[in-house]
Amino acid sequence: MDVLIPFAKHVATNRVVSVDEVPRGNACGCVCIFCDVPMQARKGGINREHFSHQPRLVDDEHYCPASFQRSIFWMARRILSESREISLPSYDLTFDEPHYGLRQSSTLVDEQRLKYDSIIFPYFLSNLAYDVALLNVGEYTLAVTLVFGGIDTPGAFVYQEQALAHVVIEMRPIELLFDNHKTGFRLLMESLLLSSLEGKRWTYYPTQEALAESFKAKFEAAVQAFAKQENERTRRLNSGTLRQSSSEVRSVNQQPLAAGNVSIGRDRLMQRVSELVHIVQKLNAQNVTSGYLCEACKIMRKPHSDICSYCGHKAYTVVPITSAYLSSLEKKYWCWNYAEKSLAVVPKIGSTTKANEDRGIS
Fold first, then answer.
1. DSSP letter (8 states) at residue 347
2. Are the CB atoms for 51 and 5 separated by under 8 Å?
3. Cβ of 252: how many Cβ atoms within 10 Å?
4. 263 to 259, 270, 296, 331, 348: CA distances (angstroms)
5. Predicted TM-score of the model (pTM)
6. How far apart are CA 362 and CA 351, in angstroms?
7. pLDDT of residue 238
8. Distance between alpha carbon 338 and the CA centroid of its chain, in Å?
9. Residue closest to 99 by CA, chosen among 10, 222, 198
């Protein structure tokens, strides 16, 4: 078998164990976690310490669903079950709407060494590409999701119709540990899982809903104030009490064309505005309540995507996708000059269905 299996089940104790916890060879007293075939512990030599099926008990026709990642999940369950503490990073949340001068930052959770009373695993660990542990901490429950990348895990973890605080732990660094260390892998994994902050991030904490509502109220008030000012300006223009210079006319009606943008063309600019708005509307249709607005290309994406898949930039603004934000969005994007800024960075937005699906907007 090509897979180097780091852990096996010790028959006498019914525990998942590592090679350094049992005797060498067939005397290890272990069976495969996945197919129950007796194992042998491979210690020393050139390769990393690992388990393998006893050769005399398997042949080329033998199928075992073992994988490195699933082995890691089994050992992670043991490590989390035998401990009662885990290090967690702080959770800092920022809502930002620079167009209205709004910014709200809060630390919801401080960096800490969390003590938990008990733990349960709500899912049977079969072919899942992730695992979930529920840590009972006093009167509340924290969901911890273990993933090896590629799994979309935003927001709260919903369990029995309750939205739980949620931490995601990226397990890919553990693969590097196994690749770089021939021995002592379990202890290294234990340290990374329980003591390190690497790969850990919060995706939800219950108090963030109140913060989001607070910012939403401020945002909607700012939008209404802006609309009121624009309505008053329009009324005064229509009544002839406010005269405009030619430069002011261009600023209001043709802002993207005012400074060297004629070469792009008004039609192309309006097309890009429509594309940008369409993406936001798609996210809203998928019940995405806030998005990451790329500071470079002005294209909205789902939250928790650190890098823009359209232009590769990392800077973004968290924007609540509210009814107030969606109202007259094409007009807003036009006035904010988003089309020109977007075209300068991303001349063409992929139009194929697959491209849009990959970006999570279809």
1. S
2. yes
3. 13
4. 10, 14, 21, 21, 16
5. 0.60
6. 11
7. 66
8. 26
9. 222
Q: How far apart are CA 67 and CA 51, in angstroms?
A: 12
CA-atom Rg of the chain in angstroms: 27
In the predicted structure, residue 108 carries a pLDDT above the cut 90: yes
Is residue 40 helix, strand or coil? strand
Buried b (16+ CB within 10 A) or exposed e, 165-174: bbbbbbbeeb
Which residue's structure tokens are 């910012």?
Answer: 215
Q: How many CB atoms lie within 10 A of CB 258?
A: 15
Average pLDDT over residues 19-30: 94
Which ranges of the chain does DSSP label H, i.e. alpha helix? 68-82, 172-180, 185-194, 208-239, 246-253, 266-285, 323-326, 329-335, 338-345, 353-358
Q: Which two tokens stand for residue 166?
A: 């949620």
Q: Do 92 and 105 contact (CB within 8 A), yes or no? A: yes
Most confident of 60-74, 104-118, 258-272: 104-118
Which tokens in the block code for residue 58?
């398997």
Query: Where is pLDDT greater, at 26 or 262?
Result: 26
Q: Among 23-37, 55-69, 164-178, name the most confident range.
A: 23-37
Domain boundary assignment for the chain:
7-66, 71-92+112-206, 244-358
> From residue 47, how far is each of 73, 182, 338 by CA, in Å?
22, 7, 56
pLDDT one-digit tens code per residue, 269-299 = 889 999 999 999 999 999 888 889 999 999 9
- Contact, 326 vs 224, CB < 8 A? no
DSSP bridge partners of 105 = 94
